[in-house]
Amino acid sequence: MTEAPFQDRPPHTDRVNAYDEQHLAVYLRLLMAEEEGADWREVVQGDLRPQSGPGARPCQNGS
């Protein structure tokens, strides 16, 4: 879903920062999962793993 590396602790700022912008798709997917009643841990294990190479499945949001 995203190729930007994750940090153990994201930068703490009062406003949206470059890190937030790079991970916006992840944030939105987690919010959508919550709305759907999905367990965030399942989303992380399934949807948020890097998808590249043979057998990779396309992103569900069409991007």
Describe this structure in words.
This protein has 63 residues and is mainly alpha-helical. The protein is built from 3 helices and no strands. The protein has helices at residues 18-22, 24-36, 40-46. The longest helix is centred in the middle third of the chain and has 13 residues, at 24-36. The chain is globular. The termini are close together. The relative contact order is 0.17. Residues 55-63 have low confidence and may be disordered. This is DUF2285 domain-containing protein.
Distance between the termini: 9 Å
The shape is globular
Task: Give the topology string: H per helix, E per strand.
Answer: HHH
Main beta sheet, described? none
Q: Which band does the percent of strand residues land in?
A: under 5%
Number of strand segments: 0
Mean model confidence by pLDDT:
77
Low-confidence runs of at least 5 consecutive residues: 55-63
Q: How many helix segments?
A: 3
Structural class, by secondary structure, is mainly alpha
Radius of gyration computed on alpha carbons: 13 Å
Helix proportion range:
25-40%
